[in-house]
Design brief:
Blueprint: E1 11-14, E2 17-20, E3 25-28, E4 34-40, E5 43-51, E6 53-60, E7 65-70, E8 76-82, E9 85-90, E10 97-102, E11 107-112, E12 119-124, E13 127-131, E14 144-148, E15 154-158, E16 164-170, E17 173-178, E18 189-194, E19 199-204, E20 210-216, E21 219-224, E22 232-237, E23 242-247, E24 253-259, E25 262-267, E26 274-279, E27 284-289, E28 294-301, E29 304-310, E30 315-321, H1 325-332
């Protein structure tokens, strides 16, 4: 068993074993790369290169069963999971499309197949959102679209000038990275759209780039370079319009994710990227995993955090459980004597 910072708190049992909160456990440790995880309840999905081309795999942590979701020809990348649906970008047809997997039926289905690239899918329940832009390398192109997977209705979310990319969704709120104010520069901003009201609104349009948005309920988080020195994590409450910092440590913070009251991100304060978190209800920042190598691209659902780790050149997927509130308070007060690094 590998250990990071051990946070002695609650326990979660899977497959006859007991995993203490804060103890890192392997999810996918195989040759070649496993990357970009997404999590829903006890299911973790990721992009996997064990078969040379990237495929999509999943693991049910409640049973320990690993499932190949898509091993089609060509590349499958950037998987996302919500409820009974898994979706990913797929170039089996020579042009990036969106394919999906229905966990209730075990069937793979095409979700968005049309001319031009359709990329970076995000899901919440039965609503799918994606970008028509070529990731973030071309800020001049791309719109945000959505599809109701029950009715099959597709509709545009944003078709503003220049590019809109990297969408995320929670409930009624879609957020994305937007270049409409950049011209030929790439000083991205964050915009959002309320589906029920058909209302678009700016979230973060300050100087310097704001990128990598994520959303849960009424809280939007993103990566922000407003101080011009290093990347921080900021947030906004949609219901009040209040903007507030999550982490402004003097090192870089990147790849924020949020679920409920827990925000997680990759953090370079210790010289390499580790996984940190913040409890919005308690106002407490805490380490989730601090160890050798680089840990980034975290995802969170409830008290389960998963991430991508690069230790020896290959990337793998690991996870841990967020400690209980009492332990978070101890960490905030500097009670790190309870913690120890993992042994390799």
């Amino acid at each position: 068993m590998r250990y990071g910072l051990l946070l002695f708190a609650g326990f979660s049992a899977f497959c006859g074993t007991v995993t203490p909160a804060g103890e890192a456990f392997p999810i996918a440790v195989l040759p070649r790369a496993q990357s970009h995880p997404s999590v829903w309840e006890y299911w973790v999905v990721w992009e996997d290169s064990r078969n040379a081309d990237s495929d999509v795999y999943a693991k049910d942590l409640a049973t320990g069963q690993e499932v190949p979701i898509s091993t089609a020809a060509g590349a499958q990348s950037g998987p996302t999971i919500s409820g009974n649906w898994i979706a990913w970008s797929d170039n089996r047809n020579g042009d990036w499309d969106i394919f999906g997997y229905d966990r209730t039926t075990g069937a793979e289905v095409p979700l968005v197949v049309r001319s031009g690239p359709d990329l970076a899918p995000a899901l919440h329940a039965h609503t799918l959102v994606w970008s028509t832009g070529r990731y973030t390398t071309d800020h001049m192109t791309g719109d945000i679209w959505a599809k109701d997977l029950i009715t099959a209705r597709e509709f545009p979310v944003c078709q503003a000038p220049y590019g809109q990319v990297a969408p995320a969704i929670s409930g009624n709120i879609v957020v994305w990275q937007d270049a409409r104010n950049s011209g030929w520069n790439t000083e991205w901003d964050i915009y959002a759209y309320e589906i029920a009201a058909g209302r678009e609104f700016p979230v973060a349009t300050g100087p310097n780039p704001q990128v990598e948005p994520a959303v849960s309920g009424s809280i939007i988080v993103w990566r922000d370079l407003r101080n011009e020195l290093d990347w921080d994590i900021w947030a906004m409450d949609v219901t009040t319009g209040r903007e507030f910092p999550i982490c402004t440590n003097d090192a870089d913070q990147l790849h924020p994710a949020i679920d409920g009251n827990i925000v997680v991100w990759g953090d370079q304060r210790n010289g390499n990227y580790d996984i940190y978190g913040y409890d919005l209800a308690k106002g407490v920042e805490f380490p989730i995993y601090v160890g050798a190598g680089e840990q980034y691209f975290p995802a969170v659902r409830g008290n389960l955090v998963v991430w991508m780790e690069d230790l020896n050149g290959d990337t793998n997927i690991y996870g841990a459980y967020v400690p209980e509130p009492a332990t978070l308070s101890l960490l905030a007060l500097g009670g790190l004597g309870l913690l120890r690094r993992r042994a390799r």
